[in-house]
């Protein structure tokens, strides 16, 4: 099972939900831990927006006002929940992996900034782990709001006492870390000057021994000051996506020429219905390579811009950016957001198409009863 931990700094932004949903589809995520939902009432969280059309189950912790809030979402066909334990600063979901029967606890952590309160969280987690049978595996992931050594901070104050408390907790509970790939820091202040590694993934020895080749990846930031962390324990291939026509293609240059050339390439013949079918098939076959080229171009542009932003982010971790670099980064981020807007329109169209094809979940019997009631009332 693959895991994702992300501090989204507010669950009300639909673009953040779409981004997480795309990460889920692309990487075959089975468990997603979200921090800082900022929802005082969990019933207001549209959990389905963070997942795809497959089944899911979830646990939540309400925010205190506009501070905090956590959400765990998982695939019930992979992970079966048994029970959960939570307080304001962590959400522990106990369950079992269907494949192999491994008993595992996934703990979503959003630690406070106060030093004493943070130490109390470590004590609570230590008590929880020690009170659970040793056969259980543990994975703790989220925003721990604490670093382990001074080099995990840049341009911000290092608290040796908090670090010692955190390290003692990790050592006393026999937890370990995977080496993070792709970056040094996980949090960057909005001004781009302060960095720290406060988001992390901690696992017990049994988890580490079962998945020794797992990869922990720091993903690029998206509309948040925290990087998402993804732990890949398995690789999943979903095959090629089906062919669809999206309205956004009408904005691209060259589509009209492609369609016209394919249309006239089929000479007229009888009967007319077969002629129409042949021309539509020719248009479809012509659009496919054109679509692949457009997609390759747009993906290349998006990848190039994201790499440039990521390069500047990594540079900012070691030295201050110049005014020119800061302005370029702002322009690139604006362009990335514009591309995301176009992609979101495609996602909306895909969702509507799926509803038209699959319909709702109510049976024909249900609709027959409703129509009968309408006739009776009339």
From TrEMBL:
One of the Pfam families matching this protein, by short name: Exo_endo_phos
Signal peptide from the UniProt entry: none
Keywords tagged on the record: Nucleotidyltransferase, RNA-directed DNA polymerase, Transferase
GO MF term set: RNA-directed DNA polymerase activity
Record's keyword annotation contains Transcription regulation: no
Gene3D superfamilies reported in the protein's UniProt record: Endonuclease/exonuclease/phosphatase (3.60.10.10)
Key word Lyase present: no
Annotated Endonuclease/exonuclease/phosphatase domain residues: 4-226
EC number: 2.7.7.49
Protein name, UniProt field: RNA-directed DNA polymerase
């Amino acid at each position: 099972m693959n895991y994702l931990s992300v501090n989204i700094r507010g669950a009300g932004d639909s673009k953040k939900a779409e981004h997480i949903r795309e990460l889920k589809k692309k990487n075959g995520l089975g468990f997603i831990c979200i921090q800082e939902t900022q929802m005082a009432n969990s019933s207001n969280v549209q959990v389905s927006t963070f997942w795809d059309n497959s089944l899911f189950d979830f646990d939540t912790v309400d925010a205190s006002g506009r501070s905090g809030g956590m959400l765990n979402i998982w695939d019930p066909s992979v992970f079966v929940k048994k029970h959960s334990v939570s307080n304001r600063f962590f959400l522990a979901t106990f369950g079992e992996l269907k494949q192999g029967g491994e008993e595992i606890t996934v703990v979503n952590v959003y630690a406070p900034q106060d030093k004493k309160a943070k130490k109390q969280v470590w004590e609570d987690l230590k008590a929880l782990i020690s009170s659970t049978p040793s056969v259980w595996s543990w994975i703790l992931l989220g925003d721990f709001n604490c670093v382990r050594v001074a080099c995990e901070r840049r341009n911000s104050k290092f608290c040796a006492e908090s670090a010692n408390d955190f390290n003692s907790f990790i050592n006393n509970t026999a937890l370990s870390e995977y080496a993070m790939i792709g970056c040094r820091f996980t949090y960057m202040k909005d001004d781009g000057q302060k960095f720290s590694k406060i988001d992390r993934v901690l696992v017990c020895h049994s988890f580490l021994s079962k998945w020794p080749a797992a990869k922990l990846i720091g993903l690029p930031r998206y509309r948040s000051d925290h990087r998402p962390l993804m732990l890949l324990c398995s690789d999943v291939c979903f095959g090629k996506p089906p062919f669809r026509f999206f309205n956004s293609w009408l904005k691209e240059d060259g589509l009209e020429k492609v369609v016209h050339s394919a249309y006239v390439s089929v000479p007229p013949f009888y009967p007319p219905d077969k002629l129409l079918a042949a021309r539509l098939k020719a248009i479809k076959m012509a659009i496919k390579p054109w679509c692949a080229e457009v997609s390759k171009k747009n993906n290349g542009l998006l990848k190039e811009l994201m790499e440039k932003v990521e390069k500047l982010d990594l540079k900012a971790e070691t030295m201050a950016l110049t005014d020119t670099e800061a302005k370029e980064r702002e322009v690139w981020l604006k362009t990335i957001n514009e591309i995301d807007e176009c992609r979101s329109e495609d996602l909306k169209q895909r969702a509507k198409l799926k509803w038209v094809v699959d319909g709702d979940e109510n049976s024909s019997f249900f609709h027959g009863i409703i129509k009968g009631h309408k006739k009776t009332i009339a």
